[in-house]
Fold:
Amino acid sequence: MNYVDGFVIAVPAANKKKYIDHARQAIAIFKKLGAIRMVECWGDDVPVGKVTDFRGAVKAEEGEVVVFSWLEWPDKATRDAGMKAMMEDPQFEEMAKDMPFDGKRMIYGGFQSIVDE
Structure:
């Protein structure tokens, strides 16, 4: 089964177009490094929870939208090699200098698929 990297971030609503452009640049790099696909989802119905929620997880501020995304890889070995190469890619390094969100508040992790229907 595929391997998935999941991400949740808070993006200023005013940066939506800039974020989309940033994501399109990133997927070009990720696909070159072996990723199968990337999905970016702009928060539309993200409720405030009583104990925890997406907004709290990324410390979303007034005027920010929660973005949920994932990156699919054919397997963990391809992902590990791709992420290592990405960290050394000068194009990605340049992109990281002008991110349309606060990367310090991003939550992310790698996940093994256990059900895929």
Notes: The first strand starts at residue 3 and ends at 12. The mean pLDDT is 94. The first helix runs from residue 16 to 32. The two ends are 11 Å apart (CA to CA).
